[in-house]
Known about the structure:
Blueprint: H1 3-9, H2 14-22, H3 28-41, E1 48-51, H4 53-66, H5 68-71, E2 81-85, H6 113-120, E3 124-129, H7 163-170, E4 176-181, H8 187-193, E5 196-199, E6 220-225, H9 228-238, H10 256-259, E7 268-271, H11 284-299, E8 303-306, H12 313-339, H13 350-361, H14 364-384, E9 390-394, H15 413-424, H16 427-433, E10 436-444, E11 450-457, H17 460-473
Amino acid sequence: MDPRTAVELADIDAVGQAALVAAGELSATELLEAAIIRLDAGRALNAVITDLFEHGRDAAAALDASGELRSGQAGPLGGVPFLLKDLGASLAGAPEAMGCRALRTHVAADTAWIVQRYSDAGLVIFGKTNTPEWGNHCTTEPSLFGATANPWGPGITPGGSSGGSAAAVASGIVPAASGGDGTGSIRVPAACCGLVGLKPRRARTSFAPGAGHGLEGLVNEHVLTRTVRDSAALLDAVTGTGVGDPYSAPPPVEPFLRIIAKTPAPQRIMVATSSPFPGPATDPAVSSAVERTAAVLAELGHHVESGAPTIDADAVADAIAVLHTVSNVELFATARAHLGREPREDEFEPSSWVMIQEGFQTTGVAYAEAIAAIHAQTRRFATQMLDHDVLLVPTLLTPPPHYGLLDQPRGTTRAFFDVEFATTGWTALANVTGWAAISLPLGTTSDGLPIGVQLMAPGEEVLLALAAQLETAVGWADRRPPGWVGVG
Length: 488
């Protein structure tokens, strides 16, 4: 394929690319080869750490031969090139290091349920994206693979832990890539890279076959995209439960892609610009972006008022720290089983080693108390939101931060999260409560860096509908970072 054509296709979102295939204008193989050209052009970003080109070519050829793409049977995503985050999106037989030096030679034994759903939807998987060790950090600079660059500028993080996926989408390599979110790991990269990042409500998708949930329900999986309709279409593709799942979310009343085509009823929206955690004040540019978004929503007919639900910040931070220490011990056991020996300290990031050591000292009582604290703070939060439908807040409290801030050891796991929450603010509350939350690229700094604004609600339907309204009213489709493929 002509490289110029490959770059031109970068401007088309996933639903649009699938429509080209369905209309017979391009094949899945041609879309894939165009994406590989863009990936090679964007190698300097270090967004993709594992090439799965032959897997992708086999899948694209099978789709082209089946006739499903042009018959319409493949759905709105058939034939679209897609990348998997190298954490939580396992593909049997593919490398799966999870950003960890101790797992550098690890290969996945099973295909995750959600990955199978992506394949069933006609997405063509052809690579895996960079992630910090075990998703512990809201930045993507693992020592195993090196830092992923933010297409918006040198020196600033693309966020994490889905930073490789975010950089790949923001640069135009692919229209969408998978992510996971335990304290903001989809929404933080979306804010840093100027993307749409939806964390679904708890149990919207399945963790089968490997688990029933992640981090006692804090983790949810979805994608990074440039358009709202791509996020909706991909959520339609993976909504549901696997056999034997411990719990599930109520099914949507209709497909999410159909929901975003409708004007939502007026919503009661609470707006807050300050953080629920102690720390520095929100950056004025971020506060202004939230306030401008509130004004737009009011003009669209929604009921907007200032306010903020309160939580016991210490209880939340303590509980999240405890859950992470135990999770790191579980992953340490995975490394031990893979290596067939006791892993060494130098095979882990320093901050992860702190979590591992604390995890071995965490008692069952402390773990149970952490879970109870999460539930208690969820009830407190939800009770204060009974008179409102949606919470509008910053995604990050600052513009995209520089490298070296969000991955450093702080002596204790709690101190580590105190630093994280001073930057991320509200993101962890969506994970704690199980609410859905979406980050939208609704602001920019004076020097042109993206600012994310976040909407939170019990379910995704209203968030996606509001996001579609804001996308039409404000728009971000024409924004391209300096690191866009084909530039220069």
